[in-house]
Amino acid sequence: MNKKWWHDKVIYQIYPSSFKDSNNDGIGDIPGIISKLDYLKELGVDILWLTPFFKSPMVDNGYDVADYCDINPIFGTMEDMDLLIEESKKRDMYIMIDIVANHTSNEHPWFKEALKGEDNPYYDYYIFKDHPVNEHHRSCFGGPAWTYVPHLNKYYFHEFASEQPDLNWNNPKVRQEMANAINFWMEKGVKGIRFDVIHMIGKEIDNDIYGYGPTLHERVRELNHNSFGKYDIVTVGEAWGGIQDAKDFSLEEREELNMTFQFEVTSSTNDHSRCGKFTPKPIDTLFAKNTLSKYQYALNDCSWNTLVVENHDLGRCINRFGDENYREVSSKGIALMNYCLKGTPYIYQGQEIGMTNIKMNGLEEYRDVEVFNSYKDLVEERKVLTKEEFLEGCYKEARDNNRTPIQWDDSVNAGFNEGHETWIKVNPNYLDINVKNQQDDPNSILSFYKELLRIRKHSEYSNTLVYGKFESYLNENKDVFVYTREEDKKLCVISNMTNKVVEIDSPFIVNKVILSNYKKELNSRHLVLEPFETILFEVVE
Ligand code: ISL
Ligand code: CA
User: Fold this and answer.
1) Torsion over CA of 514, 517, 519 and 525, rounded to 10 degrees?
2) Would you say the pTM of this structure is higher than 0.85?
3) Which are the contacts of 237, defined by CB distance < 8 A and separation ≥ 6?
4) What does the pLDDT read at residue 1?
5) Is the shortest distance between the CB of 199 and ligand 1 below 6 Å?
6) Is residue 441 among the annotated active site residues?
7) CA 349–ligand 2 middle distance (angstroms)
8) Nearest of 520, 473, 512 to residue 494 by alpha carbon
9) Does the C-beta of 196 come closer than 6 Å to ligand 1?
10) pLDDT tens sequence across 460-503
């Protein structure tokens, strides 16, 4: 595996509408992001992944794109974006965009043209049929995946909301349009791309194949060759697959992407035999640690991992892997356990101050199309969940948990704006949990993140943490994750992943502690670990 400029970089995910509102219209914006670049620099992150900021009616908060080369006016202007790219670069930071290649908005001019009829050149940009190929195939947000267009007497396919028609990737013009859009951003100096549901662009609709269709890898490679592959950027695919899929996307010689997200651990808290994320279950720590190990071993020498515990679609990591009663230690422990693994750390906005899920007062306070479509589907139509069960599921897993405004300080609206309306509720716990509180406190979660990133990037341990070989220990222990990283130095992480006190015999004497979420004097193999206690130390025996 050849070394790359991005191997030691840390990626920070920004959800623009919830980051910082500069003009008090209730929605975060690009000038708001620019105003926080110094904060991000100080945190120690390098690449800013912005979820879609393109022109969009915002049915799915920007994942319904109406123009890939224009800015949504609620976020600002193209000049603002150029300034963001430039100001980031001045601080040695780079922008990663989020390309939604599988579908567009129904308000995209291509779809509006397509609706004019079979003779229109854009008709073939989408997937129209006389009848649904499989009328039981359900959209990812609940409800049918085929929508009838009366004036055409046809159905069109949409894997997500009906306002997100799927593109027809078998049409070479669609492939060229997407390459052109990417090249537009490459020329602007963007240095990264996250590809939304990229595993779906090889679908073979007539044979009822959606994810990982037969043409997938050929399509991704072609896109690489026609656009981003000509630039020295970093790419990550959102692809819901297993190890072989991760390799197929990311082995260097395949000339596709650099890495993919793995969701086996985060989605393991959804009961798929019932209603998925709306019927959550507690984390199985043995499964979690062994799955993380599995990906580490599989991609160790040949490819690259992503280290992710939160994003804009998942609940907060404290509520999934940690415990709100142990908010500070669990937040720090999860970070240390996860970001000392081999791969690229991804931090989701607000994670660095330990933001938590939000208790909404009923359905009205939610904003996500997935909540409303799933409610209609699961509660009203199929009646498989009661309203109470559904709301309980939302508290644990709804995407809006991660979309509440960033809590900057303890002023009205948490400093997200100057006290005007906000598009989504501010979590009332902002009085306790906010950036300002934590900035000057050396023991805060924020300070812990800064220290962790400093060690990872600018210390005598950096090379080991970036390139060191992974090995796991105590694989049968269901509570404690133990692993080493080795390359010139040997480092070990011991992480109690539970809210209980657990005793273990460590494979190595713990004495040269580098970072830990408890302040303790240690000098032994036998350890009595506090809830979520996590230790990074150098093995010197
Ligand atoms: O959160 C999910 C639904 O329960 C996921 O399955 C999600 O839909 C899936 O990860 C795809 O996500 C991406 O594409 C969606 C968009 O809504 C998500 O925000 C995005 O991350 C459609 O573009
Ligand atoms: Ca605004």
Assistant:
1) -70
2) yes
3) 194, 195, 198, 199, 220, 249, 250, 256, 257, 259, 260, 261
4) 80
5) no
6) no
7) 17
8) 473
9) yes
10) 999 999 999 999 999 999 999 999 999 999 999 999 999 999 99
